[in-house]
Predict the structure.
Amino acid sequence: MNVEERVKSFILENFLFTDDPAALGEEDSFLDKGIIDSTGVMEVILFLEEEFGIKVMDDEIVPENLDSVRNIGKFVASKTAA
Amino acid sequence: MSGQPLHSLVTRPQRLLREGLLAAAARQPDKVAVIVEGRPYRYRELLVSARILANRLRAEGLERGDRVAVYMDNTWPCVVSIYAVLLAGGVFMIINPQTKADKLRYVLNDSEAKILLTDWHLAGVFGGVVAGVATLGTLIVSGQRPERVTPLPGRVLEFDEVLATDAPLETPVDMVPNDLAALIYTSGSTGDPKGVMQTHQSMVFAAWSLIEYLRLSEQDRLMLVLPLAFDYGLYQLLMSVKLGATLVVERSFTFPAKIYQRMHEEAVTVFPAVPTIFAMMAATHRKQPLQFPAVTRITNTAAALPEALLPALREIFPNALIYKMYGLTECKRVSYLEPELVDAKPGSVGKAIPGTEVFLVKESGERAGPGEEGILHVRGPHIMLGYWRKPELSAKMLKPGDLPGERVLCTHDLFRMDEDGFLYFVGRTDDIVKTRGEKVSPIEVENVLQGIEGVQEAAVLGVDDALLGQALMALVVPRDGAVLDARRIRKHCLAHLENFMVPQQVFIVESLPKSANGKIDKKRIKAERGWE
C-alpha cells in the first residue's frame, strides 16, 4: 500500500469505523465532512509519526497538510524526501 | 433604512438583538465587523447582506415569530443568516453542523421550522431529512452546489445568488423585547433535545452583563473557535457586534497552528475557549513554547478549568486576565470569578453575573448557609422562558419565585458557597456527561445503541479524562446468540449522533449490574472497572 492508501485505511478504520473505501474520497475535506475534530487531529498525527517515522511540528498542523487523504499524502512525501 | 431612526439607537438602550448591528453599522460602517477565515467584512456589508437575506425570508413567507433553522458551520453566511432572521422578525436556531439526520429531523419538526438555511456540504444529511418536515417551504443553501443532488422538495435557492440579486429589506419587522429571539437546542437528561426559548430581553440583558464583567470594549478583537451553535460561541458574535468590535471567526480548533497564526496576525485580544482547547494548548506549549502577548482576557466555560493548567496558561497568555465561569443554556451564564481572585479562591466559579443573583436550596427546602451544600437557583432577567412546547420539563426547571408570577431557574446542580459568597461546584444531580465541553445525555446515546440489531441493553457512562474532561464509555449486552462488533457499534453511533457523542470505547459484556429496583447500576459499573 502507498502512503495515501495507508492513511485512508487508517481514517476509515478509526474515524468512520468501516473498511468500505467508497466512504471517503481522496480529496474530501475532513473538516467539511465532519470526520475529524481537534482531538482527532492529534490521533492522526500520532499515526503519521509512528507509521512513517516523521516528526510533525506544531506549526505544520494546518489544513494544507492534514485536511484530506491527498494533502496528507503530499505532506508525508515532502517530509520523507527531506 | 426608512422607519428606523438609526441615530436614536446610539443613545437609547438596546431593546432588540438586531439593534446591536443597526447601531454599530450607523456609527462605523467602514470598520471590520468580522474576519472569517482571513477575509474581512465591514459593518456596512454585514448590514446590507443581512437586509437582503431578510427581504428574501419575507418573500418566502416568513412571518413574525416563525422559526428559521441555521444548519451551518462558523461561516460568513451563518453570521449573515442570524441577523437576517432577526431583521425579518423571525426566531433563529443554530444547529450544530455535526448533527445527524435523525436529530436534525427531530429539531426541524419540533420547532416547526419554515425555512432552512444551510450549506451544500451538508446535503448528505439534510437531503434525506427535508422531505419529512411538513412546515419547511424553502431552503437557502450556501457554498458549492454538488454536481449530483438528490431532488429536494420545496423551493431551493442559492445563498450567493440571493445576496447578489435581491434588494435589501427597507424596514425591519416590528417586534417587542418580549418576543422570542432564538431557540437554542440542548441535550437533556430525558434524551430528546429541548429548545431553550430566549427572548430579546433576556439575550440583550445577558450580553450586556457579560460585556460588563469581561470588560469588553469597541477596541477588542474577539476570537471565535467555538461553534456558533453553542450559546457561548453565539454570544461572542452578539457581544462583538453590539460593541462595534471585531470578531475573528474560524470554523473550529481542529488545526491549532492555523488558529495560532490567525491570533497573531489579527492581534486578538479576547480568547474564549473550553478546557479541552486549553489543555491542548498547554500540551503544545510544553513541547514548543507558545505566547500570545496581545491577548488580555481568556475565558473558560462549559466545564471546570483544571487548576493544573493555570501555570501554563499564564505563560502562554502573559498579559491576560483568566476568567472562570459557570453557566447553562437555560440562562446563558450563572456566575464568573473576578480574574484578580483566581489565586485567592481556587476551585471557585465566583459569584452571580452583574444584575442577577443566586441562592442555594437544601433538600429540606431551606436556604443553605455558608459551607452547606444545596441546589443552585438563579434569579434575573436572563433566565429562559421555558423549553419550546415542553411544559412539564419547563416546570421542572422554572420554579415560582417570591414575587407573584415570577419564576426562578433551578439548575439541579449541587453547589456550596463559602462565607464570602463564592460558589463551588459540587456535582450534578442528573447523569449528564460533559465531554470536550459538550453536554451529552447518556440516554440519548443508549437509545441509539439499543436501536442496533442484536443489542439487548446498553449503558453509557462518563469517565474522567485529562484531555476530554470526561470520556464516554459504552457497555453493550448482546441478545442471545447475537454477535456484536465494537467497531460496527461505533460506526452506527457515528451515523446517528454528533461526533462528540460517539463513545470512545465500547465494551461487549455478558450482563450489567442492576440495583434492587432493576435499574442499571452505573456506580457499580464504575467501581468494578476502576473508573472512579
Remarks:
- The mean pLDDT of chain B is 93.
- The first strand of chain B starts at residue 32 and ends at 36.
- Residues 433-529 of chain B form a domain with the GMP Synthetase; Chain A, domain 3 fold (CATH 3.30.300.30).
- The interface with chain A takes residues 97-98, 121, 251-258, 260-261, 276-277, 280, 284, 287-288, 436, 467-468, 487-488, 490-491, 494, 499-500 of chain B (CB under 8 Å).
